[in-house]
Amino acid sequence: MRVIGLAGWSGAGKTTLLTKLIPEFNRRGVGVSTIKHAHHGFDLDTPGKDSWAHRQAGASEVLISSAKRWALLRELRDEPEAVLPELLARLSPVDLVLVEGFKRDPHAKLEVYRAANGKPPLHPDDPSIVAIASDTTFPEAGRPVIGLDDVAAIADCLFAKAQPLEAVLARAKEDL
Fold it and tell me: Which tens digit of pLDDT belongs to each residue from 101-117?
């Protein structure tokens, strides 16, 4: 497995880009999984459903299964938030893992930058950003800058710059 992230401020278009990249990789025969960081509580359950009731009753984990999919929900309660290496270890093997968020973690990342956001770019202060997808140019970036709409070129770059899972996990251990 290889790992690369997409980082950028809210509203930069990370999710929009990911939804274009996943089918591009699939067309190329590359199996893709994703990890998405949320900055707030979220719910996959519907209040009132059995799985929701199980969690509300205090279950640590609830596995929901059907003929079409399964999902495992884990309640952290008072436990600390999971770190990226722990989440990566839970994934089934695929060719490429695209990580959305975790912008301060040391894995290789593509910065998604949109000038209209009015936020400063991340790459000048983050050496783990290996390329930039943007609607503006950065002549002094010192790394590839690709147009936000050039999905094929972004996919090429991401695949070339993705790190082996073992390297990401080793780097995370060093940073502990």
Answer: 888 888 999 999 999 99
Interior/surface letters 76-90, b for 16+ CB within 10 angstroms, e for the rest? eeeeeeeebbeebee
**Vertex 109, ends 75 and 102: CA angle to 5°?**
25
Q: What phi, psi does 127 have (nearest 5°)? A: -70, -15
* Residue for token pair 């309660």: 77
Q: What gap in Å lies between CA 28 and CA 5, rounded to an integer?
A: 19
Task: Tell me the C-alpha distance between 76 and 59, whole Å.
Answer: 10
Q: Quick one: CA torsion of 59, 84, 102, 78, rounded to 10 degrees?
A: 30
Helix (H) or strand (E) holding 15: helix 14-27
- Cα–Cα distance measured from residue 160 to residue 25, given in angstroms and rounded to the nearest whole number: 13
Phi first, then psi: what are they for 21, rounded to 5°? -70, -40
Span 63-77, pLDDT tens digits: 888 899 888 888 888
pTM of the model: 0.89
Indicate the SS3 state at residue 161: helix
In angstroms, the CA 119 to CA 117 distance is: 5
Q: Are strands 96-100 and 2-7 parallel, antiparallel or unpaired?
A: parallel
Report how far residue 131's alpha carbon sits from residue 112's, in angstroms, rounded to the nearest whole number: 9
3-state secondary structure of 61: strand
